[in-house]
Amino acid sequence: MTTLVVLMIHIISAVFPNLLLASLGDFDDHMNVNTFETGIWAYPLLITNFIIFGLTIFYLKKRLPRFLSNLIKFIFNFEVSSKIAFLVIVILIGMYIVFSVGELFDGKFQADYYERMKGNLENFSFTEIEGEGLNAPSFGSYLHIMLGIISIEVFGNVKVIPFIASIALLVLTYFTTVKITSKRFAGLVAMVIVLQSGVFLMYDTGITYPNFWILFYLLSLYLIYTKWPISPIVFSVSILTKALTVAFLPMTLFFIFRAEIVKQKKIRVLILYGIIIMLIIVILNFSNTSLTGELQFSSHDFWAGFNAIHTSLRLDGLVLLFMLPLVVGLFLISNHGFKQADSIMFLILGMLLSASLLPAFSDIINVPYRFVPLVVFFAMGVGVLLSKKVTE
User: Fold this and answer.
1) What is the pLDDT of residues 354-374, one digit of tens each?
2) pTM for the complete prediction?
3) Could you tell me which residues come within 8 angstroms of residue 379 by beta carbon, excluding any fewer than 6 positions away?
4) What are the beta bridge partners of residue 132?
5) Which of 367, 369, 377 is nearest to 203 (CA)?
6) Buried b (16+ CB within 10 A) or exposed e, 233-254
7) Where are the domains of the chain?
């Protein structure tokens, strides 16, 4: 329910971008801003959700034409064999490589590559970890920079390893979704959703904002089900690619709590995560690095954060238009005892709240690449709706 409430605030901000800032965010009114001016996504969002919820109501009341009802049932019950799934994955990855490999050699970099990344690649030190705040230039990017250097040394191209990481993220999205849903078709759908994402494709080959952090974070979640003793280690690795991942810790703990693993394993993995957390604190103390800096709450930045999703994901219409129906669907099946729906909703909630809380308490700003995890969680959520456990 909390996820639904927070999402509704984001929806309101998408429909009326100035409303929250003008009403609650210390917004300067000297420019006579129209509080109820509609945003660019307002009408597509309202129309799409009206249609989706209308069709859902008619479906539940058995008022849809038979061919539509049969089509919906077919989609929810459809499954593919392991051989077909493998073939589809190979085709999708092959198409992705063909259409994206040219970016490796176009000589183009993101706008702030020369300001934020080039110097780090040239002057990186393996012994000094200094900085302040979640975006500490060394601690929060230690492995990130190292992987960039390896890409240059091994492949002669700084974009190769980020590209490989993006391919790995697509494949891992498939396997994690399959592990949660017990359905290969759900994994393929999740993979396609990430693959078509505008924000994913915007950063898939760049070294300034690569997908290392979400790749390792998602791997840590996957390992909770498969090789749980390794999960906390991989989570720590994700922090070395981007210290912001520390903020995902509550999401991980909830994911463990709702995971379908035996109670003894849950306790053991939680203990390991506790040890990792203590080690991180000790390392930070000895390195004179702060993850929080000076905390000061900014009302304006907090409410402005609710505008971040629809502006940062402006190229991801699929996510924006169908996020509300997805969360409502997850909420309904969670009430029927499907714990993984709760897990995905909490992951989505963490991303929605981070858009407001992190800027409100720190100097972090919302930029599109920070929402690649939201796209991945959205894709996994769609997979959960198609789960074998739901359709049984």
Assistant:
1) 888 888 877 777 888 889 999
2) 0.90
3) 173, 177, 189, 190, 191, 193, 194
4) 290
5) 369
6) ebbbbbbbbbbbbbbbbebbeb
7) 2-391
